[in-house]
Recover the amino acids of this structure.
């Protein structure tokens, strides 16, 4: 797990504005609506990364993050092809927004 954490930290350094990858191969997610899982809200820095990684490994196998206000936020996420399904999942997971990775659209809920 430590090696995977180091690799994710490197990806985060190279992509501070945000990224989403699949586990365990760390391939970028290239399409769909990204919805963070409620269990990983407020996961910051290395301790948050560990928690988000554990949740992602047990559930969706997708993790992402972004830098904001000097904190790196980490989320286990799900990907939806359909906007309506993503909105429903976003509401169920108490998210303030969902993100379309293809268009860079941030949709506030």
């Amino acid at each position: 797990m430590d090696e995977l954490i180091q690799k994710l930290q490197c990806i985060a350094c190279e992509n501070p504005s945000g990224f989403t990858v699949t586990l365990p191969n760390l391939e970028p997610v290239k399409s769909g609506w990204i919805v963070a899982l409620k269990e990983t809200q407020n996961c910051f820095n290395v301790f948050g990364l560990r928690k988000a990684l554990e949740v992602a490994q047990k559930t969706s196998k997708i993790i992402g993050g972004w830098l904001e206000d000097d904190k790196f936020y980490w989320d286990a996420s799900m990907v939806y092809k359909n906007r309506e399904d993503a909105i429903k999942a976003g509401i169920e997971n108490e998210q303030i927004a969902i993100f379309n990775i293809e268009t860079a659209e941030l949709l506030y809920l």
